[in-house]
Design goal:
431 residues; alpha+beta; Porin; 60s Ribosomal Protein L30, Chain: A; 3 domains; eight-stranded antiparallel β-barrel; four-stranded mixed β-sheet; 6 helices; 32% helix; rod-shaped
Length: 431
């Protein structure tokens, strides 16, 4: 219902502009204005539709718009063809419908900016109240002359993909809206047997709106609406400004690489190799650190075992020292009348002292010498022997075994009863 009202208003507007429409053209006109309405709706609805797209957002849901890497020269090319209608209008004539053919080729420089060159043309028509070079056929029902002419518009376009620019690049987007500006050379020439030879060339420019509907990766359905402004001299010496509107429906084929790589997702191959080498080096260091950690753990275990063994040894030594706190005294015997020990007794003395000296440091060395009883000698002689023997022991213990002389305590024990050999004994004790 809304569509029909829009078309009726457009037809009314055309009539107010002086354009005389034949009823045979009504269906074509409806098609034209339907396409025009679709193009208008595309402009209005595009921003909100783009904002709802998926696949063009970051992890926070924000639309990402670039930057993107520039592709190779052979990438992102396209060729297109389409057909439709055109309407010419200038100040001296009334508009009529003609057929349109559109052939083009272009390249996208970025996801949003592209260049295109093409041919647009085929036939043009206008109604004239006067006989002209291009209108020799009188339509009696209209009382007007039908001008028919051919035209060719060679143009270059600068395109802006507003879908990618506003909504962020998305390879699989269904609908891309692409405004563009164009300029080029418009040529008109005669058509029909009743026309005179005619050719004119004029500069032209204008704006357009291209709608690309994705069918697959390589093929798009296209709806192209183009407005053209040129001189009114394009087919007659009328002057002023002339205009044309073209609407074509066709297809576009994409060539080469069709997608784009976001700069943030690209890595230089040399950097990738460097990162791989760094990762390998890091892995080797990690393995080496793990081996060192294992070795450290083993060494710590061994140290703990050694510490425990040392503690056990110290404990054993302490226990041994505690067991040797009280050293038993030992007796050494002199031969009758002698003041030195025999070799046998000296060996006994050396064995005794080598075992007890490490445990008796700081103790007093007591030397008890015996004196023979009356049966073995006089008291004077026994006293002499006792003193000599005591002095002999002190010198021996001090010089040979390093016992401090100040730690000596000498006692004399006179044996009056019992075994006479006890009177020749010297007893060494540590207290």
């Amino acid at each position: 219902m809304l569509k029909n009202k829009f078309i009726k208003k457009c037809i009314t507007f055309v009539k107010l502009c002086g354009i005389n429409l034949n009823l045979t053209y009504m269906k074509t006109v409806k098609l034209f204005f339907g396409a025009l309405a679709l193009a208008a709706v595309s402009i209005i609805a595009a921003p909100s539709a783009f904002a709802q797209e998926d696949g063009n957002r970051d992890e926070n849901g924000k639309i990402v718009r670039g930057p993107y890497l520039t592709n190779q020269f052979g990438d992102n090319w396209f060729v297109g063809i389409g057909g439709g209608i055109n309407i010419f209008k200038d100040g001296g004539y009334k508009a009529a419908l003609g057929g349109a053919l559109d052939v083009n080729a272009g390249k996208w420089i970025t996801p949003a900016i592209g260049l295109r060159a093409g041919y647009s043309g085929l036939t043009g028509a206008e109604w004239s109240e006067n006989l002209s070079a291009l209108g020799l056929t009188l339509n009696e029902s209209k009382d007007m002359f039908k001008q028919k002419f051919g035209f060719a518009y060679l143009h270059a376009d600068v395109m802006w993909n507003i879908s990618h620019a506003i909504g962020g690049y998305k390879e699989t987007r269904l609908w891309n809206v692409i405004p563009y500006g164009h300029t080029g050379l418009l040529m008109t020439y005669d058509r029909g047997d009743d026309a005179q030879n005619f050719m004119d060339k004029e500069f032209a420019m204008g704006l357009g709106l291209l709608n690309n509907i994705r069918l697959c990766e390589r093929v798009d359905l296209t709806l192209d609406l183009r407005g053209i402004l040129t001189s009114g001299r394009h087919h007659a010496a009328v002057g002023g400004v002339a205009g044309a509107v073209q609407v074509t429906v066709g297809a576009s084929v994409n060539l080469g690489k069709t997608n784009w790589t976001r700069a943030a997702n690209w890595h230089n191959p040399s950097d990738v190799d460097a990162l791989a080498a760094a990762a390998a080096s890091a892995a080797a260091l990690t393995a080496a650190n793990a081996a060192l950690a294992d070795e450290k753990a083993n060494l710590e275990k061994e140290n703990a075992q050694l510490a425990q063994a040392n503690a056990d040894l110290q404990k054993a030594l302490q226990e041994a020292e505690a067991g040797l706190t009280d050293v038993e005294p030992a007796a050494f015997y002199f031969e009758i009348g002698q003041t030195t020990l025999s070799a046998k007794e000296l060996a006994h003395l050396d064995f005794y002292l080598s075992n007890v000296l490490p445990y008796v440091k700081g103790k007093t060395v007591t030397v008890i010498t015996g004196s023979a009883d009356k049966k073995t000698g006089s008291s004077r002689r026994n006293q002499y022997l006792s003193e000599k023997r005591a002095q002999y022991l002190q010198n021996l213990l001090s010089e040979k075994y390093g016992i401090d002389a100040s730690s000596f305590e000498v006692r004399t024990n006179i044996v009056t009863e019992g075994d006479a050999a006890l009177g020749r004994a010297v007893v060494i004790s540590f207290e």
